[in-house]
Write a structure and sequence with these properties.
Rossmann fold; two-stranded antiparallel sheet; 10 strands
Length: about 400
């Protein structure tokens, strides 16, 4: 049976805004290339961002004007059709599309107030939880004092925890008595922005939880592990109560020290910017979101990116963020290799996250995360997505959380 995809008027409105933004950006790019070619600089001459002049400049100006006029007209026509929050329906297909779009462009969507931007929510079964006592009790009829929070990765959403018929959260709830809750967030925002918001949200959750909270456990997958670490830092700064109830965190394929793909993307920007004839094309590489560029080294704090051009080439400038005391930390990395011998290549891992990054190793001792051997586990013959459903991964987490 074909899945029915729900399309909201706000989706159409959001995509129309995105199309307008794209057209304006493309016009700027083409005009910049036109101007640089017209100047006939040397192949390694300095590029210019100045607009064209004369009739050519008038043409580009008219294109921008018409584009903005059309975009404003679509907004006006669709505004009365915007549904009320309680009237919204969705589908897994729509959710996946929005998650991917937010991962790549989420910071732009949020900054431009685009209705396609995802707002951070705690959810169960794809439905948002209202952080108010009676509403929470109605949504979770039999809550336990053990809360399990699951945090998804880049371009993903909370529904992606259910993979090939298995959901780590639901299984751990059934086996160990947790009440499982999923974070749903815009992965295109800075990791520190999401970390601070997540910290505040957990605090609000505990204040209205229907029964006394005995413990909090977090499982962070991929970028979700970095968001969780950032949340712990900002909770320490804010003096939140929930951090005193946090007992364990499990990291699944978390790039504690970044991923090579983002560092490679940064070099592409540098190379394109060398010549004035290709400098305008470097703008295409700058479409990627703040969340993606944070993955170059694994930024956790505002200080790791503030006052820096995130598209410029620079070395790892992160501040050390130690794991907080009183919490048991565990990390799981995966490798597509079949034996331990395949670990000899430092870039080898699950196809996305290098094994040494997932295990917290770093050449700078101040950035190395001190996981003991009993707190590490490596899955062989696995890729990044396999971590979400492989039975041996679940068994290891269950063993750690049951002890």
């Amino acid at each position: 049976m074909t899945e029915k995809t729900h399309v909201h008027p706000s989706d159409v409105r959001g995509f129309s805004r995105l199309a307008v933004d794209a057209m304006l950006g493309l016009t700027d790019l083409v005009e910049a290339m036109h101007h640089n070619i017209g100047r006939a600089p040397g192949i390694f001459g300095a590029p210019t961002e100045a607009p064209t002049s004369g009739i050519t400049g008038l043409v580009y100006g008219r294109i921008r004007g018409v584009t903005r006029l059309v975009g404003g007209g679509i907004d006006t026509l669709l505004a009365p059709l915007m549904p009320l929050p309680g009237e919204r329906r969705s589908s897994p297909g729509r959710e996946s599309m929005l998650a991917a779009l937010n991962g790549v462009l989420g910071d732009h969507l949020a900054a431009s107030n685009n209705p396609l931007a995802i707002s951070m929510r705690l959810r169960r079964d794809g439905q948002s939880l209202e952080l108010e006592g009676q509403a929470l009790a109605a949504a979770i009829p039999q809550p336990s004092g053990k809360i399990l929070l699951l945090v998804h990765g880049l371009c993903s959403n909370d529904l992606h925890w259910n993979r090939q018929g298995h959901d780590h959260g639901a299984a751990l709830a059934a086996d160990l008595g947790y009440t499982h809750i999923y974070l749903h967030y815009n992965t295109g925002l800075h990791i520190s922005t999401n970390g601070r918001a997540f910290a505040d949200m957990i605090e609000a959750l505990l204040h209205c939880w229907p029964v006394p909270v005995e413990e909090v456990v977090i499982i962070g997958y991929s970028m979700g592990g970095l968001v969780s670490r950032s949340a712990c830092h900002y909770s320490t700064v804010a003096g939140h109560d929930w951090l005193r109830r946090l007992r364990k965190i499990v990291f699944l394929g978390t790039p504690h020290h970044g991923v090579p793909l983002e560092r490679g993307g940064n070099w592409v920007n540098i190379i394109l910017g060398v010549s004035p004839y290709t400098a305008a094309l470097a703008r295409l590489g700058k479409i990627r979101s703040a969340g993606i560029t944070d993955l170059r080294y694994g930024n956790l704090l505002n200080e790791d990116w503030e006052n820096w051009d995130r598209f410029a080439h620079f070395s790892d400038r992160r501040r050390s963020v130690p794991l907080p005391n009183g919490v048991q930390w565990y990390t799981i990395g995966a490798t597509t290799g079949k034996t331990a011998d395949d670990r000899s290549d430092p870039l080898f891992g699950d196809g996305l996250v290098p094994l040494h990054s997932a295990l917290g190793y770093h050449k700078n001792p101040s950035l190395t995360l001190p996981f003991r051997e009993s707190q590490q586990w490596i899955g062989y013959d696995m890729n990044h997505l396999d971590l979400l459903h492989r039975r041996e991964v679940y068994n290891q987490m269950r063993q750690w959380l049951a002890s």
